């Protein structure tokens, strides 16, 4: 990358054309500022992969230029990659008090806490990395203590919104700083980098208080135990659940490791107010009168191992769902999770519970943390950017966000719809997008990082669908005659009624192949292997319409 | 099962607590009438399974009592299991003209057409299987030529609704026969068996004509090529697409095998009116002016191999999506398909197309074929049943449907929420549910039916997530000393940087295990195997946090 003194460059290592693994870079000359370092959960085609993080090879090649990692907020898609980044690059991490609490949990798990430089910031600090100065502004989102970022460079000011909505009646008075945003806009914004999650949705995001009203109502109507599930990180929603519990004289029990961890951090750092005697251990729930208890749990997305799923399946050790208990899903399913959520709702109904579930517009039990079209237009109007880079969304969302920007005055041709790795270079107030730096998905699989190749995934796919056959034979090294006859072992391959017969035929075929090849002078083992695979593969396909993986193992003695 | 002369029994072999594989049985004394024989598509946990059909062991045990299979309509979840049933039981199949057309396509594929007894019926016939008489009534749904069924038995009348909605302004004047339903209700209904898919949705289902209006509007605004995707079986929607194409002077090309097949059947049998010169071959599309062509294709559910996905990926041989083409998704994603549909929408946007997609309430491009709460209440009101069996739905839908039934006058305790296999027996106007007959999922995998056992699926799951290691060693039969040293082959297992080293260590460990065991007198091979698995498994887990399948193959010579 050029190190021309006057060049301002902006690019994403993750977060564009996807929801997840957000990681953005602003570089001025030889100064690199990283914004966020998220992870993404793999889809069903990535068999056995635990997590996806951004490809950071550009950063590894430019280690010495990195000044800071600044984290806008504590969601997984913004902090999940941090431990993996820190294992390779030692960079100071800047975040607000609550966000740092969540990052610390993560670093503890990876045993990285001691050696990491964590710096607490708030909306009023200025960070100085000459010639870049960095300021912040408060925003609203579905997690406390979120920041937008202003990077002042000699070329001009770059604003990164983080994830945001405008909530004019936020819980716990955590107001977004609209006046400061207006001021930033007045001073002039060269580039606005803004999130696009809900760019397809018309209107303004409803206030989180709406959820509070519906929770209160449901609590007032509940006759027995209440079980309520939401995102552990949505501390403001949890505050409203706590408030409703106070109102209805109920104790609160927490289920699920992340719920316990996050609530602990939120209370300790002053983001959640819970009366001292209110929390009870999950083991006490069964001894309390049902009308005096609320169970707050993880698993609102249908995660099969989380607390709600275990409650629905009746195999939670401490808590049982009983007839006429009220179960509230205070979260809408994220696209892709609909089926597992409805499976859980179904089980809860079968246990006789009163279940409050379904689309948020119907139950009022969820509002989005991401701004709708009017929120996005308000941000664009406040910032009045010369150039615009929509991020944090699939292509169609970025596309819609561009239309919104143009509707409020961003000049045509001044919006850059990037891919991860596309670089926008700005020099003398001219922006152009011509370069690319390396980017992509790095897979985390067990404890190996980034070592899972396409071939392994292809193998897993074949194994998962059709299973495999191992054919073992021992040949005489001298003349390739049989020392032991072919024997076939199968795993994950279809059991037909005539399965034994099928395997016998496979062994016979193998023998035929070997015998035939022997008549042709001396053959190499890989020829035996290839021909056995071919003959057996064809035979099995005609017989079963399946293509199991075939592994001939030939031992020569 | 009892063959007492006066016993009326009703049960499901599939379709309850699930959406899919509908199959219901009404038995009076020794007369069995089967209603529908559907299939279900497997979810992501059933690795390699193609299709799920009902367990028909009860029918196999009572073959001689089966009088007829009556099919309510031609959707996959009502006809998909027919070929598999017919391979085991020769039963005459009764269905309407259009439904038979779709069944014939299926039987042709399975080479069963010639030997099957297919009998065309319509709403006005009476079938006589003494002492059961069967009558029908027309209903509306998202496929033409649907029937509800009235089975008159000496015990009383049993009504099965099939899938239905009330559409008072149906396309092609295919009116539901509300007067006949009222008449049936007046004569007295002992048991109503009614579908429950949309029992959770308030209101009345919108008319299919609403979709027609939106399609027309979109066609009038389109400037270049139109590509529109919907369910092949929704012939009424296709009629409205044809009408809009006539209005805007466009030719029609069909993409996708099922689209071509169904449209052919629908035209041949008089359910779809297409002007003679309107259809063009897909290969001609690129030679026609874009403003004069509509491409109608399959794949609205995001199926990765269907036409729409191939168009979106730019790898369709005949047709390309070009900038400013209009692409319409005239179908809402079925729960579970949201993610693959949005992936396709994203690709279409990237090709520069104008995409009309998203929730049906927003675009008006889809209405459900299943009645909402008011439709269900209207059916219940018309039929005034003594007993009620809600079917065709997950538990929560059946539960809501019961509440609806009670709201319009069905007595409490007269609704039976069954599981597949639960039998309702009715005798002297008393209904009770005490017995169970065998039921469950039969898996179709390749050409084997029902032969895939849990163990195979467990193997596939392990293989798909962590892959496998085959460890081969040859021992001397006499003293278990090594003839050839351990050698390890892996597939689908993680490639770490030090992978060779890992395998070397596995071989060493194997050798150690064998040597150690040899000191203990003569060991059996299964002990070697077990101990190798244990030692290598533990080692690999500590090193990689993975549990690949380990297959020690020991050859004794």
TrEMBL record, chains A, B:
Residue stretches in coiled coil: none
Localization of this protein: Cytoplasm
Binding site for substrate: 232-234, 366-370
InterPro entries, per database record: Metallo-B-lactamas, RibonucZ/Hydroxyglut_hydro, RMMBL, RNase_J, RNase_J_2, RNase_J_b_CASP, RNase_J_bac, RNase_J_C
Molecular function GO terms recorded: 5'-3' RNA exonuclease activity; RNA binding; RNA endonuclease activity; zinc ion binding
Residues annotated to bind Ca(2+): 48, 50, 445
Residues given in the record as Zn(2+) 1 binding sites: 73, 75, 77, 141, 163, 392
Subunit organization: Homodimer, may be a subunit of the RNA degradosome.
Protein name, entry field: Ribonuclease J
Species, as recorded: Lysinibacillus macroides
Gene name for this UniProt entry: rnj
């Amino acid at each position: 990358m050029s190190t021309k003194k006057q060049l301002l460059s902006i690019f994403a290592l993750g977060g564009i054309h996807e929801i997840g693994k957000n990681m953005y870079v602003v570089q001025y000359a030889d100064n690199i500022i990283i914004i966020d370092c998220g992870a993404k959960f793999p889809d069903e085609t990535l068999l056995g992969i635990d997590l996806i993080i951004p490809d950071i090879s550009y950063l590894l090649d430019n280690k010495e230029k990195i000044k800071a990692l600044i984290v806008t907020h504590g969601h997984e898609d913004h902090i999940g990659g941090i431990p993996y980044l820190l294992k390779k690059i030692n960079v100071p991490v800047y975040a607000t008090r609550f966000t740092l609490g969540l990052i610390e949990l993560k670093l503890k798990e990876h045993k990285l806490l001691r050696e990491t430089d964590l710096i607490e910031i708030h909306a009023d600090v200025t960070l100085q990395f000459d010639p870049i100065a960095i300021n912040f502004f408060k925003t609203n989102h579905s997690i406390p203590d979120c920041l937008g970022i202003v990077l002042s460079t000699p070329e001009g000011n770059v604003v990164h919104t983080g994830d945001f909505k405008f909530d004019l009646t936020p819980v716990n008075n955590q107001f977004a700083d609209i006046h400061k945003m207006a001021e930033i806009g007045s001073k002039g914004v060269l580039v606005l980098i803004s999130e696009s999650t809900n760019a397809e949705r018309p209107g303004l995001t409803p206030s989180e208080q709406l959820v509070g009203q519906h929770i209160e109502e449901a609590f007032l109507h509940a006759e027995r135990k209440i079980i309520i599930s939401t995102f552990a990180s949505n501390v403001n929603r949890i505050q409203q659940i706590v408030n409703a519990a106070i109102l209805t004289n109920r104790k609160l029990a927490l289920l699920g490791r992340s719920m316990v961890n996050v609530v602990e951090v939120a209370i300790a750092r002053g983001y959640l107010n819970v009366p001292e005697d209110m929390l009870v251990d999950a083991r006490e729930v069964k001894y309390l009168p049902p009308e005096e208890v609320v169970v707050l749990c993880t698993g609102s997305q249908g995660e099969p191992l989380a607390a709600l799923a275990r409650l629905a399946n009746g195999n939670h050790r401490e808590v049982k769902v009983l007839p006429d208990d009220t179960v509230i899903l205070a979260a809408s399913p994220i696209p892709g999770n609909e089926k597992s959520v409805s499976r859980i709702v179904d089980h809860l109904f079968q246990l006789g519970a009163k279940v409050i579930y379904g689309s948020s517009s119907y139950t009022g039990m969820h509002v989005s943390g991401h701004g709708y079209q009017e929120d996005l237009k308000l941000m664009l109007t406040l910032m009045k950017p010369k150039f615009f880079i929509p991020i944090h969304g699939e292509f169609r969302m970025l596309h819609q966000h561009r239309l919104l920007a143009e509707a409020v005055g961003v000049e045509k041709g001044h919006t850059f719809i990037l891919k991860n790795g596309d670089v926008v270079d700005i020099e003398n107030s001219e922006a152009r997008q011509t370069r690319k730096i390396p980017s992509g998905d790095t897979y985390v699989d067990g404890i190996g990082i980034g070592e899972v190749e396409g071939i392994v995934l292809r193998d897993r796919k074949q194994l998962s669908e059709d299973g495999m056959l191992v054919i073992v034979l021992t040949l005489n090294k001298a003349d390739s005659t049989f020392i032991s006859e072919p024997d076939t072992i199968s795993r994950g391959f279809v059991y037909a009624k005539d399965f034994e017969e099928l395997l016998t035929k496979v062994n016979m075929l193998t023998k035929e192949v070997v015998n035939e090849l022997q008549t042709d002078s001396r053959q190499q083992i890989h020829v035996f292997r290839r021909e056995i695979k071919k003959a057996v593969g064809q035979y099995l396909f005609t017989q079963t319409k399946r293509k199991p993986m075939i592994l001939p193992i030939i031992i020569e003695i």
